[in-house]
Design a protein that fits this description.
Layout (H helix, E strand, L loop, with lengths): L1 H17 L1
Subcellular location: Mitochondrion membrane
Family: Belongs to the ATPase protein YMF19 family.
Protein name: ORF165
Length: 19
């Protein structure tokens, strides 16, 4: 599921921005 993978990637980027 590419969508799920994209979501995970986005989440990771979001957390990185928060940090």
């Amino acid at each position: 599921m590419p969508q799920l993978d994209k979501l995970t990637y986005f989440s990771q980027f979001f957390w990185l921005c928060l940090l």
